[in-house]
Each structure stands twice: as C-alpha cells, then as structure tokens.
Amino acid sequence: MLWIFTQNQQSFVHVHEITVAGKKIEGMIAGSDTWVKTLGKYDSNDRAAEVLQDIVKTIEANQDATVTYRMPNQ
C-alpha cells in the first residue's frame, strides 16, 4: 500500500499507480480508473524521473509495510 503526501502539502492520498507526465508526477488514486491527481511538478522531465526512481527505491526498501512518501519540493 502506497500513501503519498503531495508536493503542495494539500493532500495525502492512497495511490494505486504513478506515472511521469513531462515535468509532473501524476497518481491514479486507489479505486479510480483515471489519473486524477498531480502529486508533484518539477523543473525538468529528468528531475521528475529521478523522483519516481526514489519512490521505487522507497517501496523496495519497505516491501512488507505500508509506505508513506513525501514528494520533494524541488
């Protein structure tokens, strides 16, 4: 189970899937069939991809637990 605290610190959401869409990271909220939430926006596509890789590493390090991730500001 993955919970994300969004970059703007306005939402704490249970995320089912995550994608990089240009400079944004978007998440499909659990129980929804559409991309409904921007989790963070960064200065470049490369930075967004780095953040996604950090999310993956966090999940891999905590495979047997619920994971909470805070989106970085930059």
UniProtKB/TrEMBL annotation:
Domain of life, per UniProt, equals: Bacteria
What name does the UniProt record give this protein?
Uncharacterized protein
Q: State the organism of origin.
A: Bacillus safensis
